[in-house]
Design goal:
The complex is a heterotrimer.
Chain A lengths: L6 H6 L7 H21 L5 H21 L8 H4 L6 H22 L10 H27 L7 H19 L4 H19 L8 H26 L5 E2 L7 E2 L17 E2 L2 H25 L1 H11 L1 H6 L4 H27 L1 E2 L6 H14 L4 H24 L1 H4 L2 H5 L1 H19 L3 H20 L2
Antiparallel strand pairs in A: 1-4, 2-3
Helix pairs in contact in A: 2-3, 2-5, 3-5, 5-10, 6-10, 6-13, 6-15, 7-8, 7-9, 7-13, 8-13, 10-11, 10-13, 11-13, 14-15, 14-19, 15-18, 15-19
Chain B lengths: L7 E10 L2 E11 L4 E5 L6 H8 L8 E10 L2 E2 L5 H6 L2 E4 L11 H7 L7 H14 L16 H13 L5 E5 L7 H18 L2 E6 L2 H7 L2 E6 L2 E7 H6 L1 H7 L34
Parallel strand pairs in B: 3-8, 3-9, 6-7, 7-8
Antiparallel strand pairs in B: 1-2, 1-4, 4-5, 9-10
Chain C lengths: L1 H4 L6 H32 L6 H18 L4 H22 L9 H23 L4 E2 L8 E4 L2 E4 H23 L1 H11 L1 H6 L4 H26 L2 E2 L5 H5 L1 H7 L4 H21 L5 H15 L14
Classes of the chains: A mainly alpha, B alpha/beta, C mainly alpha.
Chain lengths: 446, 277, 302
C-alpha cells in the first residue's frame, strides 16, 4: 500500500532524510577516533582512557541513531545493510569497539582481583578466527539446512593448503595461501556437497561425517609424507610478513632485517579482524541476495523451491562451496596464528566444539556464531580466574583438580539447557535485550 | 456392547499456534447419542478442533488459550491423550494415518491400546471383521499397501476397537470414491443408532454430512458462523450456495458474502478481527 | 589400485585370522548398532551419545563387578538396573521436552548429553586407565591355524540372543506393538490412546540397558578401560548404516560386514585405513541405498 492511498499514514509519519555527510559521519568518527586516541593517549591512565572511550561510544551511537532515514523508504534505502536507527547505532558502536579494542587490550593494566587482562588478547584473536569459521558453518547447517559434520575436514584442508602453498612453496606467504584455500575449499566443498543432492537430514549428516574421516586420512598422510610426526610449523621463518613494498603504510616499522613480521597479539589482531569482519559481512550479504533467499527456500522445502524455479542442486552445492571456502580460510588463519598443526590438531572433539559454539550462540544466525565463539573461549578463562581468585570458589578443591573436565561438563550442560529452554541461544537473548532496550527508549522519548 | 454415548461440550474455545489464532471462541455441543457434523473449507480450523479435543496440539506447537472442553460433564482440557481415549473418545484422523508398516491386524489392535481386557479385545476385533468383512482376508497384509477405501475402513475399525462413547471422524470422505463414502456414512449412522455412540463428523462434503447428521455447525476462519439442525442448514440459501453447490453467483469464501453485522467483506486470506482478551 | 598400497598375502591362515578377528569386532559393532537402531527406530532420534552410554556401562561394570566384587549375575542385574534408571532420567529429564523439535537440534542435544557424561565420568573415575574386565571365559582354541577366543563367541551369542529377544518383543508384545506404532506415526498413535511419552521412556531405557550390555562386553575386549572407549560409538556408525538404521537384524549383518572389511583393511593396508575404509563403505551404501541394506523406506510428504 502506498502513502497516497492512505492519507492517515502520511500525516503521522515524520519523513526525514539525513544528508550524505550525516549518514556517514558517525561511521567516519567511529573509524578514525580510535587511532587518534591510540596515538595520543599514551600518558593518560587507564580510567581516563576508558572514560573517553565510553563518551565517544555514546556520541557515535547517538549520532547514528539520529541521522537515520525515516518515513517512507525507497527500495534502495530499504535494502541497505543497516537500515533502522537501532541497526545503525549498533553498527557504529561495533566499528568503534573493534578498532579501539586492541589499543585497550595492549595497554598495561592490572584490573582488580587479577582479572586476566593479558590472556584476553589471545582469546579475542581466537574468537575472531572461530567466529569466522562458525559463521560459515552456521550458514550451511543453520541457514541453508544442509546438515554437515565435515567442517573440521575443511579446517584441515585449510591447514593442508597453508602447508603446501604457504610453507612449502613460498616459505611463509599466508597471503597467497588464503585465496588458494578459499579456492580449494570451494571446489572440495562442492564435491563434499554432492551427497546432499541425494541425501537429507540424518543420512547427509552421516555421509559428511564419512567425508570427515577421509579428510583426516589425507591430513595424516600429508603430514607424514612431508613433515613427519612433529607436524607443520607455521612459526619462525614461516611467519607471515608484510611485503617490503608496503612498508610505507602508516603504523608499519620494519625491524633491523628490514622485515615486518606478523607476530604478537597486537599485529595479529590487525590481520585477523579485517579478514574476519569482511568475510562475516560477505556472508551476511549473501543471505540478503537472491542466492541466499534460495538457500532458505531449499532448506524449508526443496521440492517446493524447485517448483518456484530455484535450481535446487546448484543452490545446495553453492551453500556447501561458500561455507567450505570460508572455513578453509579460517583454517589457514588458525594454522598461522596458532603456529603449528600436528596429527591430533583435528579430531572428533573439534567437531563437537563447533557444534557447541553454534548451539550456544544460536542456530541459523550469523551473530550467534560470534557470540558462541566468544563464549566458548572466554568461559575457560573466566572459570580459571574464578578458581584462582574468587573466595567462594577458590577453596573448593574438587574444582581445581579437574579444571578442563569441569569446563567440558559446563559446556555440555549449557548446550542441553539452551536447546531445551532457549533454542535460539545467546543471539536470541541478545535480540530480546535489544527489543527491550528499544521499547524502553521509545517509551522515554516517544 | 458399549453403553450410551457421552455428550461433548466445547465452550469459548480459543486455540493459538505461536501468534496465529486458529480457533476463536468456538462453542460446539454434541449431545449424548447425537450425530453432529462440523462443516468448513480448508483452513477453517476443523483439524485444530479435533486436535484440541484429543489433546494433540502440543505436537504442533499449539495451545488452548481460553475455553473449556467437557466430556460427560467432566473437563478433559489439559488431560493427556491416552486418558482422553480411555475416557471414551476415539478418532479417525484426517488422511487416515494408519501405521503403514504394521499389518491390518496390528493396526486394529493398536486401536485397543487403552483397553486391557484380552477377551473383550478379541470380541471387538471379531465385531469389526463382521462390519468390514472385506478386511478379513487382508488381516496380515501391510497396511500401507491397501487401497484408500480399505485403509479408511481399517481407520474406522481401529477407532471402534476402543469401544468409544464418542467417535470423531476427521475428513472421512477425503480422496475416496463416493460409493465408499456413502457406505461409511451409512455405517456411522448404524453405529450411532444401534450402539448409541455419539458421533462428531468433520467434513468438507457438506451434502453427505447434512444428510446423516442431526445437528451441524459451519466453521470458517476459526469461528462458528452458523449452527442449527441439519435440516435447517440444508435449507439455508448461503449454505446451499457455498457448500452444497447451489446456483447463483460463485463465491470463493463464505466471508465474501455480504451479511449483516459486518460492513465490509474480508479481503482474501484476511482473518476476522480477533477479540482482545 | 589397493594392491599398490597393501601387501596382500596368499597365506590362507592370515586371512582366516583376519576374518575371525573381523567377525569378533563385528559382533561388538552389532551390539552398539543395536543401540542406535532401538532409539532411531522408535523415536527417530540419532543418538550420538550412544558411545558415551556404552562408556558409562563399562565403568559401571567396573564398579559393580570389580570394585564392589558382587556375584556375577547379581552385579550384571544391578548394572542393567542402574542403566535402566539412567535411561529414564535421560528421557524424563531431557529428551521429553525435545519432542517436535528440529532434527539437528535433537542430534546436537545428544551431543550435549555425550559431553556431560564424558566429563562426569572423567571427574568421578579420574583419567587413569583401568585393566579390562576378565569375567567372561578367557581361553581360546585353534581352527585351521587361526585363534578363536572364547570371549568373542560369548559376545556373539549374547548379541544374537539380544536381537532375537528384541525381535520377539517387538513382534509379540503389546508394548512392542505400541513402540512400532509410535515409530510409524506418533500423532496417530497418540490419538489411539498410546502414550508416546511412556513408549519413548521405555525406548531410552532399553537403549541404556543395551549400552550396559555393550559396555560389559566391550570392557572385555578393549585394550584398557579409559576415556577413549567412547570412540566405539562413532566407529559403529558405518555398521548401523550399512545394516539400515531401522532393522534389528540389519545391525548384526551390518556389524559383521563392516567388522570384516575393517579387519581386512587393517591387516592388508595398515591401521590408519580402518576408519576411512569403513566410512567409505558407509558413504557408498548411503549413496546407492540410503536406507541401508534392510532399512525401511520413509516416504516424504510434500
Amino acid at each position: 500500500m502506498t502513502a497516497t492511498e492512505n492519507p492517515a499514514v502520511q500525516e503521522t509519519a515524520q519523513t526525514y532524510r539525513p544528508s550524505t555527510l550525516q549518514r556517514f559521519l558517525p561511521f567516519v568518527i567511529a573509524a578514525v577516533v580510535p587511532f587518534i586516541l591510540g596515538a595520543t593517549t599514551d600518558d593518560l591512565n587507564f580510567w581516563w582512557k576508558a572514560a573517553i572511550t565510553l563518551a565517544i561510544l555514546a556520541l557515535v551511537a547517538r549520532l547514528a541513531w539520529r541521522w537515520t532515514p525515516r518515513g517512507e523508504l525507497t527500495h534502495r534505502e530499504d535494502m541497505r545493510l543497516w537500515r533502522t536507527p537501532s541497526d545503525r547505532s549498533w553498527a557504529a558502536l561495533t566499528t568503534f569497539g573493534l578498532l579501539v579494542l586492541p589499543f585497550i587490550l595492549a595497554s598495561d593494566f592490572t584490573p582488580p582481583m587479577d582479572f586476566p587482562w593479558a590472556t584476553w588478547f589471545a582469546v579475542v584473536n581466537l574468537v575472531l578466527i572461530f567466529a569466522m569459521g562458525a559463521a560459515a558453518f552456521n550458514l550451511l547447517v543453520g541457514y541453508s539446512g544442509q546438515i554437515s559434520l565435515a567442517h573440521v575436514a575443511f579446517l584441515a584442508l585449510g591447514s593442508i593448503v597453508g602447508g603446501i602453498v604457504g610453507v612449502q612453496w613460498s616459505g611463509g606467504n599466508m597471503w597467497l595461501a588464503l585465496p588458494a584455500a578459499a579456492l580449494a575449499g570451494a571446489v572440495v566443498g562442492a564435491i563434499s556437497g554432492l551427497p546432499a543432492l541425494r541425501l537429507k537430514h540424518l543420512y547427509l549428516l552421516l555421509a559428511t561425517f564419512g567425508f570427515h574421516f577421509v579428510m583426516m586420512l589425507v591430513w595424516r598422510e600429508y603430514l607424514q609424507e612431508y613433515f613427519g610426526f612433529v607436524g607443520i610449523r607455521f612459526k619462525g621463518v614461516n611467519s607471515p610478513r608484510i611485503a617490503s613494498w608496503l612498508h610505507w603504510l602508516p603504523g608499519i616499522d620494519p625491524d633491523e632485517n628490514g622485515e615486518f613480521i606478523i607476530t604478537g597479539q597486537f599485529r595479529w589482531y590487525w590481520v585477523l579482524m579485517p579478514i574476519a569482519v569482511l568475510s562475516i559481512l560477505f556472508m551476511v550479504n549473501v543471505i540478503r541476495t537472491r542466492e541466499g533467499r534460495a538457500f532458505a527456500a531449499v532448506r524449508d522445502r526443496d521440492v517446493s523451491a524447485s517448483l518456484l524455479g530455484i535450481n535446487v542442486a546448484r543452490s545446495k552445492l553453492m551453500a556447501f562451496a561458500l561455507s567450505s571456502a570460508v572455513v578453509a580460510m579460517s583454517g589457514v588463519l588458525a594454522s598461522f596464528y596458532i603456529g603449528s598443526r600436528g596429527e591430533d590438531s583435528f579430531n572428533v572433539q573439534t567437531v563437537l566444539n563447533y557444534a557447541i559454539i553454534i548451539v550456544v550462540g544460536g542456530f541459523s544466525s550469523i551473530q550467534g556464531a560470534i557470540f558462541g565463539s566468544a563464549f566458548f573461549w572466554f568461559l575457560p578463562e573466566w572459570f580459571k580466574w574464578a578458581r584462582e581468585e574468587l573466595w567462594f570458589v577458590r577453596d573448593i578443591e574438587f574444582l581445581s583438580d579437574y579444571p578442563s573436565e569441569i569446563d567440558l561438563a559446563i559446556k555440555g550442560f549449557l548446550v542441553v539447557i539452551i536447546l531445551m529452554f532457549k533454542p535460539d541461544g545467546l543471539a536470541g537473548l541478545w535480540r530480546d535485550f535489544k527489543n527491550w532496550l528499544g521499547r524502553s527508549l521509545a517509551r522515554r522519548n516517544p | 456392547m458399549s453403553g450410551r454415548g457421552l455428550d461433548l461440550r466445547i465452550q469459548g474455545l480459543t486455540v493459538i499456534y505461536g501468534g496465529v489464532t486458529a480457533l476463536d471462541n468456538v462453542n460446539i455441543a454434541v449431545p449424548s447419542g447425537g450425530f453432529v457434523s462440523v462443516l468448513g473449507a480448508n483452513g477453517a480450523g476443523k483439524t485444530t478442533l479435533v486436535r484440541s479435543i484429543t489433546s494433540l496440539l502440543y505436537l504442533h506447537k499449539g495451545r488452548v488459550r481460553r475455553g473449556s472442553i467437557e466430556l460427560g460433564g467432566e473437563s478433559i482440557l489439559g488431560k493427556k491423550s491416552p486418558d482422553i481415549v480411555a475416557a471414551g473418545v476415539a478418532q479417525v484422523p484426517e488422511g487416515r494415518k494408519l501405521f503403514p508398516n504394521l499389518t491390518v491386524k496390528e493396526n486394529l489392535l493398536c486401536g485397543a491400546a487403552s483397553r486391557s481386557d484380552v477377551s473383550g479385545i478379541d470380541e471387538s476385533l471379531e465385531q469389526n471383521l463382521e462390519l468390514f468383512s472385506q478386511l478379513r482376508p487382508l488381516l496380515n497384509q501391510t497396511a500401507g499397501l491397501l487401497s484408500g477405501g480399505e485403509q479408511q475402513m481399517v481407520a474406522v475399525g481401529r477407532a471402534l476397537m476402543s469401544q468409544p462413547s464418542l467417535l470423531i471422524c476427521d475428513e472421512l470422505s477425503l480422496g475416496l470414491a463416493p460409493k465408499i463414502v456413502h457406505r461409511l456414512f451409512e455405517l456411522l449412522t448404524e453405529i450411532n443408532e444401534t450402539r448409541g455412540t455419539s458421533i462428531l463428523v468433520i467434513e468438507q462434503n457438506a451434502s453427505l454430512a447434512l444428510q446423516h447428521a442431526n445437528d451441524a455447525y459451519v466453521l470458517e476462519l476459526g469461528r462458528v458462523l452458523m449452527e442449527g439442525s441439519a435440516a435447517e442448514l440444508r435449507g439455508n440459501p448461503m449454505v446451499q450456495e457455498l457448500y452444497l453447490g447451489g446456483g447463483g453467483e460463485a463465491h470463493t469464501s463464505y466471508a465474501a458474502i455480504e451479511r449483516p453485522g459486518r460492513s465490509r467483506p474480508l479481503e482474501h486470506g484476511q482473518r476476522p478481527p480477533v477479540a482482545e482478551s | 589400485m589397493l594392491l599398490a598400497f597393501g601387501n596382500f598375502t596368499a597365506d590362507p591362515s592370515v586371512n582366516l585370522q583376519l576374518l575371525i578377528g573381523g567377525l569378533a569386532l563385528g559382533a561388538i559393532y552389532a551390539v552398539v548398532a543395536l543401540g542406535f537402531v532401538l532409539v532411531y527406530k522408535s523415536t527417530d532420534v540419532l543418538n550420538l551419545a550412544h558411545g558415551e552410554f556404552l562408556m558409562l556401562g563399562a565403568y559401571f561394570a567396573l564398579t559393580f563387578l570389580i570394585s564392589e566384587n558382587l556375584n556375577f549375575f547379581l552385579g550384571v542385574f544391578v548394572l542393567l538396573l542402574v542403566m535402566l534408571v539412567f535411561g529414564l532420567v535421560v528421557h524424563y529429564g531431557i529428551m521429553r521436552r525435545m519432542v517436535g523439535q528440529g532434527f539437528f537440534a535433537i542430534v546436537l542435544i545428544t551431543l550435549g548429553i555425550a559431553t556431560i557424561i564424558r566429563a562426569l565420568l572423567l571427574i568421578f573415575y579420574g583419567p587413569t586407565e583401568r585393566a579390562r574386565l576378565d569375567l567372561l571365559p578367557q581361553g581360546s582354541f585353534e581352527v585351521g591355524g587361526a585363534t578363536v577366543r572364547h570371549v568373542d563367541l560369548v559376545i556373539f551369542a549374547v548379541v544374537a540372543a539380544c536381537v532375537l529377544l528384541f525381535f520377539l518383543f517387538f513382534k509379540y508384545t503389546r508394548l512392542g506393538l505400541h513402540m512400532r506404532a509410535v515409530a510409524d506415526d506418533i500423532e496417530a498413535a497418540a490419538a489411539m490412546g498410546i502414550d508416546p511419552d511412556k513408549v519413548y521412556a521405555m525406548t531410552w531405557a532399553a537403549a541404556m540397558v543395551m549400552a550396559g550390555v555393550g559396555g560389559l562386553l566391550f570392557g572385555h575386549v578393549t585394550g584398557a578401560i579409559d576415556r577413549s572407549i567412547e570412540a566405539i560409538g562413532l566407529r559403529a556408525f558405518p555398521a548401523a548404516v550399512v545394516g539400515g538404521l531401522t532393522s534389528l537384524g540389519g545391525s548384526i549383518v551390518g556389524g559383521l560386514v563392516v567388522g570384516v572389511i575393517e579387519q581386512f583393511a587393517n591387516g592388508h593396508l595398515g591401521t590408519k585405513w580402518r576408519e576411512p575404509v569403513a566410512f567409505s563403505v558407509m558413504f557408498v551404501v548411503l549413496l546407492v541405498r540410503p536406507t541401508g541394506l534392510w532399512g525401511r523406506k520413509d516416504l516424504e510428504r510434500v
